[in-house]
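Chapter summary example: a protein plus zinc ion.
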Amino acid sequence: MTDSEDDTGVPVHCDACETRTRVPLSDLADAIERHNEDVHDGEPVAEVDPVLKEQLADLVVEDLGLLEEDA
Ligand SMILES: [Zn+2]
């Protein structure tokens, strides 16, 4: 197994860019915010992989505000 450099990261998926990258949990919010700001003018396009987001919901995602819904 040599094709996964960082198995410990959290999969971040961006629909618009069609990219999926792994980001260390400690850098998760930053990386997503940075990507969205740099590439998407601040629009929340990139996000944690939906499947994982559910798994992480109780742990961190809530904390990061990634589950915010349009009110
Ligand atoms: Zn993107």
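Key point: The two ends are 44 Å apart (CA to CA).
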